Amino acid sequence: MIQFEHRPGILDLGWGHPRPGLLPVQEWAAAGAVAAREFGWRQLTYGSAAGPAPLVEWLSARLRTAAGRTFVTGGASHGLALVASLLAGRDDVILVDSPTYHLAFRILADTGARLMRAPADAAGADPDALTRMLATLRAEGRRVPLLYLVPTFANPTGRSLPLDRRRALVALAQRSGLTLLEDDTYRELGYDGPAPPSLWDLAGGDGVVRLGTFAKTVAPGLRLGWVNAAPPLIARLTALGYVDSGGGVNHAVATTMSCFVASGAYDRHVAVIRAEYRAQRDALVAALRPHLPVTAPGGGWFLWVALPPGLAATRLLARAERRGTSFVPGSRFYVDGAGGADRIRLSFSHLAPADLTEAAARLGAALADSR
Ligand SMILES: Cc1ncc(COP(=O)(O)O)c(C=O)c1O
C-alpha cells in the first residue's frame, strides 16, 4: 500500500518521509469538495498542457516567476526525469553535487549519460574547481549539459550554499552553457529564517532550471510539483508526446491544490509543519549532542553527522539496528561511492519528538558498543 516499511522494534531515522500525523487529511478532503463544486466537469476532463491556470498563476506569484516559465509535474522526481531526458543523453556527462540526493542518481542515469561527481568542499559545490573540471571535460570532447544540485536545506547535509558561490555558479552557467538543475524541494522548510535566494532567482531564469514539489510541504502521495524553466524548455515540455496525448500532468490533483492554496490552507499548514519539524529537529539535535557533534541545519529534514575517527558508518549501522534504530550511511550520497564513509544521514521528519529522543539514545548505545 505504501513505500515506507515499518520494521518492528526499529525507530528508523533513515526515511525522508513526512510524519504521518502531519499530513493534512481533513484539509485536503475539504479542498477536494471545493474543487468539485468550483470546477465541476472541468476537473475531470483532460487538463491544459502546462497545468491548470489557477495553480500555475499561484505558483508564478508565490515564486515571483514570470508567465510562461512553469510546467506542472508529478513531483520533483518527475520534473527531474523529464528535464534530464530533454537536455541530456547517451555519452553526455551529467555532473552531480557531492554529497547529494542519492535517488536522483538513478533518475539521471536513466538518460544513458555518465554521471560524474562535481567538485565540492565543506561549503558545497566549488565553482572554481568546477570551472576547471568543465574545461577539461570539454577539451576531451565531452558534452556536459547539466549540473544537478540541492543548494537550499540540502538532502543529505541540511546546509545551504553560500551566496557568493550561488552567484559564481550562475555566472559559470551563463558563460559556459552548463544548465544548473536546481532541486529546490526544501525551500519552504526554513526553521530559523527565510531561505537564501534560489539560483533560479539569481539567474533571472537564464542558465537554471528549478524543480519544485508539494511533497514536503503538503503530501508526497499527491505526486505534484513543477518545473521552472525558460520558455523554450517549457515549450518542449508541453509538446512532449505524452502531454499532447494525455493533457496536463495530474490535472485533478493540481486543480484541488489550486483550491487548497486559495483558501489559505497551504499557508496555515506550512506554518504548522515548520513549527513541528523545527521541534523535531531540536529534539533530535539535543538528544544526540551527548553522543555526537551535531549542528542544527537551518531547514529541511536531515542531520549530516560525522562519526568518531575510525568508525565506519556501515559498521555502526549493524550495531544501531541491533539496538533498534537505523540511518542511511553517508557513502550512498556520493555518486562514485568514494566519500562519506564516516558520515551518516539522520532524518528527523518521520518521527515525533519523543521517538526521536529514544532513537538518539539507541544510537548512543550503538556508538558505545562500537568503542
Ligand atoms: C532533494 C530531493 N528531491 C526530490 C525528492 C522527491 O520529491 P518528489 O516526491 O516530489 O518526487 C526528494 C525526496 O526525498 C528530495 O529529498
Automatic annotation (TrEMBL):
Sorted alphabetically, which keywords does the UniProt record give? Aminotransferase, Transferase
User: Which Gene3D superfamilies does UniProt cross-reference here?
Assistant: Aspartate Aminotransferase, domain 1, Type I PLP-dependent aspartate aminotransferase-like (Major domain)
| Pfam name, any one | Aminotran_1_2
A GO molecular function annotation here is:
transaminase activity
Q: Which CDD domains match?
A: AAT_like
Residues in Aminotransferase class I/classII large domain copies = 13-363
The keyword Nucleotide-binding appears for this protein: no
Name of the molecule in the record = PLP-dependent aminotransferase family protein
